[in-house]
Amino acid sequence: MQNSYFTPCLKDFYHTRYQFIRALNLILIIIFSYLFTSCSNDIVTVDNPGYDSARYNWEIDTVEGIHFWDAVYFDTNKIYYLSQNALYEYNGIDYLPHFYGYPFTGYCISAIDENNIYTGGYSMISYNQSMAYLKKWNGAGFEEFIIADTSDKADNFYSIYSKSIDEHWLSATKGRVYKFDGNNFMKYQFDTNSWYIDPFVKDAAGSIYFENRVGPKLDMHKYNGTSWQTLCTVNLTSSYFRMENIGNQIFNIHGDNIQFFNGSGFTDFLYVGDFLIMDLELCGSSPQNIFLSGFDFGDHKDYIFNYNGNKWSKEIEEDEDYKNYHYFYSTSNTVYAIAYDFNTEKTIVIKGVRK
């Protein structure tokens, strides 16, 4: 990677971690797919067998020597990509770097508009110690914010969600959640055995949620404007649970099931039996337009699949040398995703446009 801090160790660590997690997910998803106990039990909607042909035309772009982790979208010709050492502005032709400045390393990203793009991460303050930092791109340069409480030893901001100019949510290790109001950080502490809390999601009314694990259970929390309340507890008998936004609705994926949040618990939405869900990441503009990565039992290949409310389509094959795609933007007609090829050290950016 170009101009990257600690590139060799980070590349090797994330490549190894990806391979391990991918293999572990394959094993555990199969073993535990029917052992999940949700907040509520409802009828499972079974998908029609077989696949439709691709509904989207796909364009592929490659960026040599740079690892994009995530991105925020404003327009086809205005996308900002997160890397470790710079925020890359895509203008429709070029990827223009805005460097954070040493020793900051970017880890997560969220935005309000083009002049309010927030990158969470860390700065090294000694050989083996880091401190959580937040960077704001204001359209002309970066502003920097740190936690004023010097007794708080948060080493990194791992996830971020920007709801408004004066309400941003970030997470660190050991169950720490922070509200940033544009100037100061307020800490909330939760018991958890997760490495960090991720992601933050919102409902149609704009309320913010997250989930955290405590032993064999999982608590779902909602911010009511002044404090966090626990809405439900899941007896977690399976290995994985993750929430995502589909449009303005909250969904999760577990084993072979996709579920949605009904206001107080999770309801089964869709049973996926034709392929094995990979990486447990959802994206979509509505329940009638969902994307995810999967392994087809028929030809033993990985694909991006699209659900239209009735059937799945097999969209584009995922090269096994790539990390499965991370989706960062979707409308009813367009979807964007990125992946990184560790073998050739390049980022793959794909754009799908409905036919």
Outline the structure in words:
The chain has one domain: 7 Propeller (Methylamine Dehydrogenase, Chain H). The protein has one helix and 29 strands. A five-stranded mixed beta sheet has the order 1-26-25-24-23. Strands 2-29-28-27 form a four-stranded antiparallel beta sheet, with no helix packed on it.
Topology of this structure?
Layout: H1 7-32, E1 51-52, E2 56-64, E3 70-75, E4 78-82, E5 86-90, E6 95-99, E7 104-113, E8 116-126, E9 129-137, E10 142-146, E11 159-164, E12 167-171, E13 176-180, E14 185-189, E15 201-202, E16 208-214, E17 217-223, E18 228-235, E19 242-246, E20 249-254, E21 257-261, E22 266-271, E23 275-286, E24 289-296, E25 302-307, E26 312-317, E27 326-330, E28 334-341, E29 346-354
Parallel strand pairs: 1-26
Antiparallel strand pairs: 2-29, 3-4, 4-5, 5-6, 7-8, 8-9, 9-10, 11-12, 12-13, 13-14, 15-16, 16-17, 17-18, 19-20, 20-21, 21-22, 23-24, 24-25, 25-26, 27-28, 28-29
